[in-house]
Write a structure and sequence with these properties.
The protein has 513 residues and is an alpha+beta fold. The protein contains 16 helices and 18 strands. 53% of the residues are buried.
Amino acid sequence: MNIQPLHFSRRQCLKTLSHVSLLGLGSRLGFSVENSPAAQHIALSLGESPDVAPEVPLVPGFLRFGWKSFAVGNVGSAPTTLHGLGEAAPAVPDNAECRLRLTNAVDVRNDYAIEVSTPDGEVIGTLPVRFAALYQVQEMVLTPAQARQVLKKGAVLKLVNGPAPLWFFAPSPEASPTPDVLQLPHVLIAPPGDPMTEFEHRLRGLVMLQGFGWQSGCASEGLLDLAEARKDDALLALVDRYLSMYFTADGVAFESPRSHPVKDRVGGIEEPLPWATLARRQPDHPALEIGRKFLSSDKISKHNVSLGQSLTTEGNYTAAYPTAVLSRVLKSEELATIALRQLEARRLTNIHDGDVYQSASMAGGKHLRNWCRGVCWYYLGLVRTIQALDDERATQSWLPEIKRVAAFLLHHQREDGLWGNFIHDPQSVTDTSGSAGLATALARAHASGWLKDDSHKAAQKTLAGLAKHLTPDGLLGGAAQSNKGGTALQEGSYRVIYQMGMGLQAQLIAALK
């Protein structure tokens, strides 16, 4: 798809720069429009790009709202260009932190690299894009001098590694809501400041939108937890608007984690998590029935683990927990029983010799031992499910496991408050996203009276450690990439911005209040 460049006069550019951090925040749907106190996001308009579309059935994100995308083409094809602002480019202080950013509009299932240069041939650097998720923000650090060059002259993007085109979000002025400026090509200029203050602003923007399912559910649950903890009506309204980007008046429409269009059904076991937020906020929504039918279907609710069925820990969080929430809203004992069955199936299947395996079976197959997010899904799902059921017999039955995992986590927590991507391995690079979720579970279990004060202190330590991984404008970096890249990617040091991790961080903040 070749999107024509947007042309602004020099006067228009100068006029809009002071408000650039407000552009694209979707005010037509009521998304919060708050000026960032320090960071500037300077939008770059699109020049030329290859006229190619994703192969069917792939679709760019939020196409039904009018969001547009552009391609960075195959290796050897014509490059994609972004226009600079010429003499209207803003000043960049010598002490500013600067980044060039793009946001993925289509799911990525391979290893890519984009060479970034100026139109006159000066190479700025290489932007790796490895197994990226839909709506994931990609960034390349710029020096202030490089940022001045890009802002003035623009940038040329050329794929130098990877098998097929990549798609990123393009300016979409006719869309409703229009994308957040952070989701469009832009240059960040951020003088020294307070990343946590910026984090609060980012939570209220469309940049928090994620691929529907476990990713968007991490975000929506975090926003709702925080709104309820603070009794913040504006944030509660924002949760409803967040949900409206996926749930229609009587159903649901979204792009799956593989960028396939889905309507009025649940695509898989990792997708029901948003139904927990929907049930908590809109208990009479017609789409609850779609979630109920899926979660109570025999394929999902009846596990025969003795036959060697392989299960993933995600099911504790993406299936057991929303099932427990729906059981309370719909007053269904059947759903409550199913939620506990989900937990028990994973205790039998995914726990071996005290270790948690993200994927395992009783027949012997085991994968990703003590992987940080895998343990997070197991433990956060367990804690939130038992809390949602609010059943004393279930609580007493699961309390030993809640305490056992807590002891394991406290033993392996690092000095910075985080956990390694493979928790038992001291050489493993930390993962901020899983750490945020694990600390949330500790804090919530402590708040329920199930754990001692050392768990609360450990969660506080995690929150302090996460702050050190925030970008200057408040996005959470340091997250392990999606595990669709295989074990080798998880064992490496590649780390990314991942907004679902910000949702887990918001859950942690709320749990500590």
